[in-house]
Amino acid sequence: MNQIRLNNCKLVDEPADAGTVIINTCGFIEAAKEESIGTILKAVALKKQGIINKVIVAGCLSEDT
Q1: Which among 4, 13, 31, 48 is placed 20 to 30 Å from 19, CA to CA?
Q2: Do 51 and 61 touch, CB atoms closer than 8 A?
Q3: What is d(CA 58, CA 41) in angstroms, rounded to the nearest whole number?
C-alpha cells in the first residue's frame, strides 16, 4: 500500500470510483477462487461499460500452471 500512496495514487472503497482496479486472487481455496472469479467478472463488466480504465489481476489464480 505504501508504494501505491508514494506514486500519488488514491485508494477507494468502490471499484466504480477507481480508474484502475487491482484484484489480488487466491486459487487454492475453492470458495476464495470462486470469489476471485466473481470479482474479476464484475470489474471487467465495469471496464466494458467505460466506468473504469484498467483491471489488473495478481495472485496465484493469475499465474500460469
Answers
A1: 31
A2: no
A3: 14
Q: How confident is the model at residue 1 (pLDDT cuts 50, 70, 90)?
A: low
Cell for 43? 470489474
> What is the rounded CA–CA span in Å between residue 38 and residue 43?
9
Residue type, 5: R
**How many alpha carbons lie under 13 Å from residue 62 in its C-beta half-sphere?**
12
Asked if 52 contacts 19 with a C-beta cutoff of 8 angstroms, the reply is: yes
Residue 38: partners with Cβ closer than 8 Å, 6 or more residues away: none
Could you tell me the three cell numbers for 33? 477462487
Q: What is the pTM of this model?
A: 0.82
Cell, residue 30: 475453492
